[in-house]
Amino acid sequence: MKMFRVFADFHNADVQGRLRLNCIGTVEDLARQNIELQDAQLLTFYSEDLEVEGIVQYSSEESLWVAAIDWNAM
């Protein structure tokens, strides 16, 4: 299975440290690759020289998609 790479703003994390997937670069990458976010989906997130795998989750608290990442893996 192909691992999709999606832009993420690593400065846009929630209080639990999950990346919010609502910035324009993320939305554009998702649309360009025809990715429909789903719970427990594994994606690679990147920004400039950073890259890390993350698991997509829906945040009902913020009503948006987020990604749980291992900050120590970067």
Task: Describe the 3D structure.
This protein is mainly β and 74 residues long. It has one domain (5-73). 12% of the residues lie in helices and 36% in strands. It has a 5-stranded mixed sheet with strand order 1-3-4-5-2. A hairpin with a 4-residue loop joins strand 4 and strand 5. The radius of gyration is 11 Å and the shape is globular.
User: How many β-strands, per DSSP?
Assistant: 5
Principal-axes shape call: globular
Number of domains: 1
Largest sheet data: 5 strands, mixed
Query: How much strand content do the residues show?
Result: 35-45%
Which H/E pattern describes the elements?
Answer: EEHEEE
Number of helix segments? 1
Unreliable segments of 5+ consecutive residues: none
What is the residue-mean pLDDT, rounded to a whole number?
A: 95
Rg over CA atoms: 11 Å
From the helix content, strand content and strand pairing, which structural class follows?
mainly beta
Task: Report, as a whole number of angstroms, the end-to-end distance.
Answer: 23 Å
Percent helix: 10-25%
Question: Which keywords apply here?
Answer:
74 residues, mainly beta, globular
Describe, in short, the structure shown.
The chain is mostly beta strands and 74 residues long. The chain has one domain. The protein is built from 1 helix and 5 strands.
Write the layout of secondary structure elements.
Blueprint: E1 5-7, E2 19-20, H1 24-32, E3 42-47, E4 50-59, E5 64-69
Parallel strand pairs: 1-3
Antiparallel strand pairs: 2-5, 3-4, 4-5
